[in-house]
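User: My notes are a mess, but here's the protein and S-adenosylmethionine's SMILES. Can you give me a structure?
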Amino acid sequence: MNSSTQSIVSRTADAYDSVPYESLPFDTAQPEHLAAIAVLLGMTPVPLTSARVLEIGCAAGGNLLPFAIKHPQAHCIGVDLSERQIRDGQAFIKQFDVQNVELLAMDICKAGDELGQFDYIICHGVFSWVPADVQQGILAACKRLLSENGMAYISYNVFPGWHCWEIGRHLMYRASAHIEDPKQRLAVAMEALRVFSEHASDSPDRPLRQILKEGLKRIEGQPWYYVLHEYLEPCNTPLYFRDFVGHCASNGLRYLGDVQFSSMFRENVASGEADTFIGQHAKHRYDEEELFDYLSGRTFRRSLIVHDHRQLNLAVEPSRLNTLFVSSTLHRVNEPVSGDAVTFRKQNNHDYKLKIRDPMGIAILDLLSAHTPHPVDLPTLLFEYWTVSGEDASKKTDQDILQGLDTIATFLLSLLKKDAVAVAFQPVMATNHISERPEAFALARAQAIIEQSWVCNTYAQVVPTEPIMKALLPMLDGTRTVQDLLAAKQQWLPANEPKQHDAASVLQRNLERMCATSLLTR
Ligand SMILES: C[S@@+](CC[C@H](N)C(=O)[O-])C[C@H]1O[C@@H](n2cnc3c(N)ncnc32)[C@H](O)[C@@H]1O
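Assistant: No problem, the inputs look usable. Here's the predicted complex:
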């Protein structure tokens, strides 16, 4: 590592020591998600129960914790340059006696074989913010530390989309470079962006004003620590997708696929002449995917990589869904008039609409909708389908079952390619019902005690908390009945709460919310 890289590395460590990153979980960077995508791409992932997981640039370990808590026999190691972030994470682990997570303050480039081999390596939000030598160090560490059947996840900023964003970042970085104090520096950087988004050129051949305006919109409302690190770190080096693939290859690694499964399919990105052009001129899937980036202006990628000697079998067969679990947030918006298509809409993205005409497809989506957000395996779906359509499952032959599974898998694969459904590698330990003795996810119970305005649910998603929910969560360890909770209302219901007299309905509402946000495990 040359002295300029060394100096950037120590500045990076100082930057995260002085302004730590909020250590969040990311559902699509969890081994459960990586394993599910790998199955679709023809791999046999290492079982999760006793997997070894490494996170590079783990901050305070927030992304490792949900996996570690759900898989007590697994072992997780997180490394990060910032001693302060690692200390914060270690304090949490000690306070709540988490036995299977180790956090180490170190530069990943110096990680030796003594760390052991890992089945899953996660490197989220790091690769683009380190110098080129460190990028090589990350890939070299992946090669050295990845077990034979392991897989690594690396996210990074990509061109050409980032070319637009770079204009605003360079302006912010340069206009504020003379200021030491991080908060003051950010204020000046934001002011630069605001001023220039009003006054920069708006001529059609140099539409800087428009680009900066969009940049400002993207940043406004984001937490300040995030904007500071995203835009004002000395390094922010996006790259073209094929260059990333090339760097992987020169480190003995190979691109397996994208964790956003639908992004790999041409029909989702290209149409008309662009579709024809890509069909004629892309000689390899890497060329094709890079051309998708030109079409969509994509700015961020999350790639799965494996050892380069692994054989790939990328023809995605419906049968690959047979061992997975499928979920959907689609809900129907109209009742079917006989023979007409039914429109489904995503719960969390109302712009996403899907029209289904086939009665079996409609029934399957209704069934998935009843399980939302939890994933269901295909045999269960088939059985439920037969039940709702009045067929006697006990009379079905093995042939009927195979045929039924194949039909459902083919339908669901077509939806998966359109991002209409999601897959999971295993069932999730969340419940759709409030039990007599409600139990909340152990990590959320622990996080509710510390000074933090959110907790992590069983899907490794962030759920914002309010005071009543924060006070209730630690009590939901499965030992107290709803009556016990009501009897102890002084512990969770503030004395000045206007609904003091109606504690039962406040409790019910909070339990329902926890259930709906996948915080309850029982
Ligand atoms: C933008 S933060 C991302 C944190 C977390 N992965 C996330 O996405 O929320 C980048 C992290 O990478 C760490 N980092 C940067 N260079 C590193 C290196 N050479 N070795 C280990 N960690 C590094 C930083 O200290 C910082 O915590």
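The CA atoms of residues 393 and 400 lie 10 Å apart.
User: Great, I'll file this with my notes.
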